[in-house]
Design a protein that fits this description.
Structural class: mainly alpha
Mean pLDDT: 87
Shape: globular
Strand order of the largest sheet: 2-1-3
CATH class of the largest domain: Alpha Beta
Helix content: 40-55%
Distance between the termini: 21 Å
Radius of gyration: 20 Å
CATH topology of the largest domain: Rossmann fold
Number of domains: 2
């Protein structure tokens, strides 16, 4: 990856673009795009390796931001993993370390009983976590059993902690129906581009570890590979789960806007016009809340 003195550089805030080999399903930037504009935190981990945590990403992102700024460049954080963005903006809840024995015990629970316990001890987390998301459910229960307080309670530390003021939050807004049509078209395009073959190759090679196998697209296709779903049904599940994920993203965006200077643009806006609006906003003292112009974009 080449560096551009004084230019913009992208930091990927995507929990699955970090993994090598997971290209089509994560809509990873192409090799040409990465040559034209430097990208950070893409292809930095193996999908069957150790879990890549939010803390791992935050440390690497902060190092990338410092390096880009030292070159006189503009860090632009781009991606759909809003937990990463929230950690970057408000700090990270330092949870208890993983307890392998407790995790194994929780993972062995009946899924319905595990879900019922989460709804009882942490209704806020249950509202955020999909019933089929066993990894995040186990982590929420693990935190509660280790500390006696819910994960949602601990994460309130974000709202009481530091808040960055050197950031301009830029969001794209689409009408829901238009966004859903784009999601459906995107899934079809990914299948045409070879997502089925890419996912099958990773699955056959045993390269999808516990975290990577939760990625949208790969998770549903593995159900097909393992004989638990017909291909057409698996593809339809990708569309449904992606639309649900987009709804969750909209909720995250509303939360982020509550604490960060922002610029909301229409997703249907001409890209050049959108870029010009962002450039103007970066130097707008009103958007920067009376501070120096933001020198990091999300």
């Amino acid at each position: 990856m080449g560096a551009q003195v004084g230019g913009a550089e992208i930091i990927a805030a995507d929990a699955f673009q970090i993994y090598r080999g997971m290209d089509i399903g994560t809509a990873k930037p192409s090799a040409t795009e990465r040559t034209e504009v430097p990208h950070h935190l893409v292809d930095v981990a193996e999908p069957d390796g150790a879990a890549f945590t939010v803390d791992d990403w935050l440390r690497a992102a902060e190092a990338s931001i410092a390096s880009i700024r030292a070159r006189g460049g503009l860090p632009v954080v781009v991606g759909g993993t809003h937990l990463y963005a929230k950690a970057l903006l408000d700090g990270l809840f330092e949870g208890p370390p993983p307890d392998p024995a407790l995790r194994a015990q929780l993972a062995a629970m009946d899924p319905a009983a595990r879900r019922a316990e989460l709804e009882r001890i942490d209704p806020a987390a249950a509202a955020r976590i999909h019933p089929n998301d066993s990894r995040r459910t186990v982590r929420a229960l693990e935190v509660f059993r280790q500390t006696g307080a819910s994960l949602s309670f601990h994460q309130q530390q974000w709202d009481r902690g530091r808040a960055r003021r050197d950031v301009l939050l830029v969001t794209l807004e689409w009408p829901v129906e238009a966004l859903n049509r784009r999601i459906n078209a995107r899934v079809r395009a990914m299948m045409d581009q070879g997502l089925l073959e890419e996912a099958r190759g990773l699955w056959r090679a045993g390269r999808l570890g516990p975290q990577a196998r939760e990625a949208l697209g790969y998770k549903q296709l593995m159900e097909h590979f393992e004989g638990r779903a017909a291909l057409d049904d698996a593809v339809e599940r990708i569309k449904i789960e992606t639309r649900r994920f987009a709804k969750n993203q909209r909720t995250w965006i509303r939360r982020l806007r509550a604490s960060v200077s922002g610029l909301a643009l229409s997703g249907e806006m001409d890209p050049l016009e959108a870029a010009a609006a962002i450039v103007r906003a970066i130097s707008d003292p009103v958007l920067s809340q009376g501070h120096n112009s933001p020198d990091c974009g999300i």
